[in-house]
Amino acid sequence: MASGYSAKEEDGHHSGALGPAGGAAVRSRKPDNTAFKQQRLPAWQPILTAGTVLPAFFIIGLLFIPIGIGLYVTSNNIRELQIDYTGTESSSPCFACSQNYSWNMTTPCVCSVSFSLDQPFESNVFMYYGLSNFYQNHRRYVKSRDDSQLNGNLNSLKEPSKECEPYRTNDGKPIAPCGAIANSLFNDTLALYYNDPNGTETQIQLVKRGIAWWTDKHVKFRNPVGDDSNLTAIFQGTAKPVNWQKPVYELDSDPENNGFINEDLIVWMRTAALPTFRKLYRIIEKNSSTSPTLPRGNYTLKITYNYPVRSFEGRKRMILSTISWMGGKNPFLGIAYITVGSICFFLGVVLLIIHHKYGSRSSSADLTH
Amino acid sequence: RRGEERRGEGGAVAGRERHYADNKIKTTKYTLLSFLPKNLFEQFHRFANVYFVFIALLNFVPALSAFQPELSLAPVLFILSVTAIKDLWEDYRRHRSDKEINHMDCLVYSRAQRGYVEKYWKEVRVGDFIRLRCNEILPADVLLLSSSDPDHLCHIETATLDGETNLKQRQVVRSFIDLVSDCEFDPLKYSSIIECEKPNNDLNRFRGYIIHRSGRRDGLYKENLLLRGCTIRNTEEAVGIVIYAGHETKAMLNNNGPRYKRSKLERQMNVDVFWCVVILLVMCLFSAIGHGLWLFQYGDKRPIFDVLSPEGTDLSPALSAIYLFLTMVIVFQVLIPISLFVSIEIVKICQVYIIHQDVDLYDEETDSHLQCRALNITEDLGQMQYIFSDKTGTLTENKMVFRRCTVAGVEYSHDANARRLAMYQELDSEEEECTSHGGTLPRRDSGASHQSGRVVLRSHSTKSHRRTGSRAEAKRASILSKHTAFSSPMEKDITPDPQLLDKVNECSSQLEYMRYHRQPLSQLPSELSDVLDFFIALTICNTVVVSSPNQPRQKVRMRFELKSPVKTIEDFIKRFTPSRLTSGSNSSSSSSLATSRSVPRASSSLLPSPSADGTLVRLQEEHTADAPEGILRPSVLDTGGATGPPEEGELRYEAESPDEAALVYAARAYKCALAGRLPDQVTVELPHLGKLAFELLHTLGFDSTRKRMSVVVRHPLTDQITVYTKGADSVIMDLIGPPAADDTKGKRQRKILYKTQNYLNQYAADGLRTLCIAKKVLSKEDYEIWLKSHLAAETAIHGREELLFESALRLETNLHLLGATGIEDRLQDGVPETIASLRKAGLQIWVLTGDKQETAINIAYACKLLDPEEEIITLNADSQEACAVLLEESLHYIQSKFLCNTPEPSNRAFEDDFTAFHAPGLPSPASTPFLIHQLGLVIDGKTLAYALEKSLEDRFLAVARSCRSVLCCRSTPLQKSMVVKLVRNKLKVMTLAIGDGANDVSMIQVADVGVGISGQEGMQAVMASDFALPRFQYLQKLLLVHGHWCYSRLANMILYFFYKNAMIVALIFWYQFYCGFSGSVMIDQWFLIFFNLMFSAFPQLITGTLDKDVSAETLQDLPQLYMNGQNSEEYKPYMFWMNMIDAFFQSLVCFFIPYFAYADSDVDLFTWGTPITSLALFTILLHLGIETKTWTWLNWASIAFSIGLFFSVALCYHSSCPTCFSPSNPYWTMQRLLGDPLFYLICVITPVSALLPRYFYRACQGSLFPSAVQVGRQLDKSPPEARRSILSQSKASLGGPFSVRPAHYPFPGVFYNHSAEGHVSCRRKDSVKCSTQNVTEKGAGGNRSPGRDILDTKQGSSSQRGPTPSEAGTLPYSNPDSSAPSGPEDHLHTDPLLDPSNWAEPAVPFAQPECVPLTDSPPASTLLRPTGVERGGPQSCVPQRLGLKEGGTPRHNQVHNEDTSKESSYQTTLL
């Protein structure tokens, strides 16, 4: 799409040469005859008409439809299972547990949900818990945290940020971790059992490490480092968040997954974008290459039901899913590509018709019509 | 008026002038300390800034805060600091120049040292005596006390004040002339008190007294005051006392900064900014209510994510909602385009720079550019609808060329001179073609064959230096000698008329004869004496200053007598007593002694002086040696006496107005040369008589009310007191005294009067400026009586101007007519083409001129403003009632004539309801009942005054609007501005006023855009203007190209800004539905804040500065494209809303594609928000890409830069600090996203689908209903041949995309000729009232046509038309709009003469500029001959057919065209 300005450039030089010969003696105020100053920069001047944009539409159409099909197929190959265990209906196993509003129950309420898999889950299975209607993106909620406390800053540990109010101190002691996000940590415990056809229940190994971002685990979140390596000692003088049953240093027995670097905490602290979200809970790793990670059959999900959602009409789900290169199961993008591609193709056809009908009376006809 | 006392007693008395400003100037606004508070204070006067600071402060309230409070200050601080830096820079520059000025040196008298010492300007105090030397600049306003000039004069150049380069004379305070006439002025002896008025900014007024110790009081006038900033010239030394210093000087008080105008586009934009505020508030309210409801649904059951207030208390839904409202105001603040204001300023500065740099707007002859004086209304240039133009100096060159004259009733046509002038034109065109000018000289010589030897000689002598005569060369030469105004060879070399030359020679020989026979001058035949007086009057009745070129700016000293003008009665008595000669010569300088004693006296009946030796004998002594050959008898003697008068013909005349110079040069051609001018004396060199000194008693300067000037001199030949008056013919003719009772003489006088009037009419019809020359001889007694009152008037303090005016009126009566002159004011290059092109662009052009009607009309014809085909309505009325009737008549006439063509019922209504047409806004052309007809309106100043009355202005506008061209003659500056104001306010149109003189200043200031021509007539117009052009011609490119570009660039940029901000804000708004309307933002606050300032700022600036929708060539070839801006087609109100809707659509796409793509996933807030930000950026940039018409490498670079900047900033930002930037804390987000295929997939599909509708719409629009601009763009791309044929065809097209305003049919004449017959005649009411409403122009004395009323003129013009003039004249123009666009095609088919090749013919004149000479336009000259007078009455409405039409210009053009190929016509249109 080159421009045809060369002739005009010549014109410019020509007129420049006509200038006063004595220009050297008296500095003329004549403007420089440069392409920029005279606005003659070489330029591409696209004109949008049916004829010119036609190829673009067809190209987009032809590119998008295959991509969309590919995405759709990929998404469809992902296995996913969702189990809602909120227990709002009286018939559901967790109904009794769900009636509880309170956070601090002395006796844990356990319920179990049975389900069956029709098809085996072949590769690594990711276990999520899903919450609905939970506005983790609420403006004041999102702000209610102290990143430097979570990063192991001792000052912040004792003196948490004001953003944490009103979950900053409890009984005069600073809360660790402070803020509303930490305070509302999801505290249901999920356990998965495979019901062998022979009747035995085998608990499925759930990996609790590696569910958080690597940078979060290793850079953003750090336990405070004190004189002694004992977390209990370091967190001495802090209070546990109001809604927690255990203090932060008792979240896990594994010292690499305890305190602020507990991955469940880290995952929770990454506030979800939308009110319906899922968060990675555990990973079920594929053990052998021969057998599927989760074979067909019946399973039982045992839930230690702690997390009240009735106050906000929330739902709780357990999701088992395999993932592909493009993440979890989501057919939307495939459909979107196919749709947009088809629309482009269709519009391309429309433009082709327009071009054939009206394009012939192109510029010259336009001027005289 | 309260005066102010200014004592001057030398610098010693410091304490007493404490209350006067010192001379240190400080134009800076700030000091180091005050800069910050003061600048901020000023910036907060802008409402927008206050608003943004308010928002930033809101953010500091914890309950509301949406962003980090510090961060939210960033944009405000950015905007404020950009402005502050700009202000600081400007202030620093001012400071530097102040410092420079303050430290200039000048000589100040010091009492301590009893002498003048050098001091800095800033140390000068009021009351100091300063000594000024030649070429020094005045440090303060100084009262002139002494001058080394023997005449007690001081010449100053006021170029820095008003740009006028001619010298002005200033005089020493009168009492000091007597006081220190001989010796040096001694400040120690000074002991007077000066009382003067308070400092004011009126450059032309200064009043005060000087009170001497003796108690004597003397008036002080502006002639005594030297103003700061002027340069002393021609005076070796002057001493003065400082009156006003520093900031109290008139120059400083006049120094007001640039005006701030608000462009139409900006006004429109502000409306939409207001709508943005409304949208913002609606969105905030919606969110607040939503939040309240959302909270309300939870009732008492507090969800855990609803965080309690910091105090741990619960917020009620209502209170939360109120808080949230304010929070949302902060969050959505981007919707109010904070950076838009800054961006617009930046873009406008760039645009101004680019316009300034345009080489096409550079005038080589004067080495001047276009100047943009107003920085913020560039886009208004693209939206003009009405142009109000001055005539003289704007359309014409203001180069006055003497053309012909009539003396004593005999006309001297100066044919040779006319031929000479014609040759300049030929030379001009020749010069363009070939550089070798071998052919020029012979031709020139042949043209000048019978000229006197001098002219031929001259042409040879100049040949070596410059190509003779060509106009461009002449101008170039005049640049070289820049100091002399109005002196190109064309103006200087006047070829005398042989007949008149004979008379002059006869006259001189008679004088010669009489001299020997000692006959009194009165015996000279009256015709010859008239000739003599005529030339004397031409020579001396002016204010021309003579200087010699060898010593530029050195006054030619040629003194015969030293005497100041008569100032007192004693003076008068002293001078007019018999002893006068001896006493008078006392003070004469040695060099002039010889001649001063020999002041010749021809016999004088009135003053029987004892020095009756005043015969002509002695005159012989005064012959100059270098008197030209060709005069009957070579000179005998030359006593010279004068200090080296240079050889004849080399004197330079510096005139304040060019016509004065023209007359002086004309007189010189007849050997009656002005040799020197002093305030009290004019020296004239006459053939055979040598140098004559006229004692100049009074000069009654020109003013626009009197329209004449007079000089009172003592005639050296007769010793009579003679008044020479020169002025506009209308006034002079009224002042001519009644013919003597004596039969033969009276008869002759009557005859002369009659003849002169006829010739005057003829001159005017030829487009010449006419001046009448008259004289009057005063008896001594009469003079004494008059002098008394005049002196009283001169010394009066109060109302001096009025008294002087009356005094002049008393003197200028009973004049004796000598003759009249016709001066041609030549049209500027390319004026007709420019006007034609501007008119095709849909601009209404009105010419407002002070000239008389006939001259104006003829210039209007010459520059194609009026068309010979056009009917002309002339409005000349005597009274308010007559004016009302006339307007009514015209309305009826227009209505009845054009009614059938405008079927809209509203047309019928407008007569009853005049308010109908000032409905707000300009109605779209299709709906307006006021089609512009083929009518011209001519109105004179007096009628204009009536028409501008409140009661009539609506009717006047109704008439004027329907006319294609309007010509207001004889209008005063005030009327000019009133007309502009009226049109601007009532019609709500954009007006442009263009002019060059001081009389255009008010008009220029009133108009939306004022354009000054930086020509010769001073700089006042330029100073008042927004743009200053070197030539009228450049208006075409300025408006059609730059105006169009600036407008479309800015309009598109503003729309884009609104879109961009709305799109970002809408993204956040949609999110509110998914975060409980809590004011949460998924776009990182840093990105959000800097999105406008950094990431998306550059591409739009580049596009806003450089985008060209259509190339300059096409814009000029197709002026119709300008209507795009006139009709505001780039930015209509609905476009704002369309953009808003598009923005909301695009944001929906940009929001929901990521929404669904990430629905129910483990994505966190900012990992989800960052892709949205990125794809919003892509979408916004691609959107700009669709709207960009011209892609240069700068566009590509800026887009690449924007994207690069975003990602690099994001990557840095996201890896910099793991714990900072609460709450988003986006550590490593972008890095993770870049590894996520989903991110890329979204980034591809979202912009594509978001922009799909717009892209598709643009493509369809381009194919199905392309706008004129788009067609123009296609034309740009088409190959040259296609382009050529299209262009030539487009001239024929009517209903096509260009004829937005169908009434503007560009080539009426031809079209009408061939197509009119084909149309069904419309039922014209033939009974146009033709009542003989003879409303004659008052003051049209003598035998001027009495019946030049409206109907006659109508008749006169219609008589040139075809058989059915009125129907035919209108149909073609109204047809296209009522019929389908296929109309013109019909024409094309039905009429073979409308073949496109014929349509190129109007381009022919382009090829030969000025091929239609002023005088040779037959329709023009016939039109005004009062043919209707004889017929008169109703029957004059019967259409008359004149043969003229057939042989007229159009046919001629056609013939011409047949041998002009398409090729050449194409090329010429490109010019």
UniProtKB/TrEMBL annotation, chain B:
Cofactor(s) needed: Mg(2+)
Catalytic activity: a beta-D-glucosyl-(1<->1')-N-acylsphing-4-enine(out) + ATP + H2O = a beta-D-glucosyl-(1<->1')-N-acylsphing-4-enine(in) + ADP + phosphate + H(+); ATP + H2O + phospholipidSide 1 = ADP + phosphate + phospholipidSide 2
Highest rank taxon of the organism: Eukaryota
Record's keyword annotation contains Chaperone: no
Keywords: ATP-binding, Endoplasmic reticulum, Magnesium, Membrane, Metal-binding, Nucleotide-binding, Translocase, Transmembrane, Transmembrane helix
Main location: endoplasmic reticulum
Catalytic class of the enzyme: translocase
Feature: compositional bias, Basic residues: 460-469
Ranges of residues in domain P-type ATPase C-terminal: 1022-1267
GO cellular component, one term: plasma membrane
Residue ranges, annotated region (Disordered): 432-477, 580-612, 624-655, 1333-1471
Chain positions recorded as Mg(2+) binding sites: D390, T392, D996, D1000
Transmembrane segments annotated in the record for this chain: 48-67, 73-89, 273-298, 318-342, 1054-1074, 1086-1106, 1136-1159, 1165-1186, 1193-1216, 1238-1257
Domain P-type ATPase N-terminal, first and last residues per copy: 17-71
InterPro entries noted in UniProt: ATPase_P-typ_cyto_dom_N (IPR023299), ATPase_P-typ_P_site (IPR018303), ATPase_P-typ_TM_dom_sf (IPR023298), ATPase_P-typ_transduc_dom_A_sf (IPR008250), HAD-like_sf (IPR036412), HAD_sf (IPR023214), P-type_ATPase_IV (IPR006539), P-type_ATPase_N (IPR032631)
Pfam families: Cation_ATPase, PhoLip_ATPase_C, PhoLip_ATPase_N
Localization per record: Endoplasmic reticulum membrane; Membrane
Biased amino acid composition, Polar residues: 1354-1363, 1372-1381
UniProt topology in membrane: Multi-pass membrane protein
PROSITE patterns, alphabetized: ATPASE_E1_E2 (PS00154)
UniProt similarity note: Belongs to the cation transport ATPase (P-type) (TC 3.A.3) family. Type IV subfamily.
PANTHER family, alphabetized: PHOSPHOLIPID-TRANSPORTING ATPASE VA (PTHR24092:SF81), PROBABLE PHOSPHOLIPID-TRANSPORTING ATPASE (PTHR24092)
Protein name according to UniProt: Phospholipid-transporting ATPase
Organism from which the protein derives: Scleropages formosus
The encoding gene: ATP10A
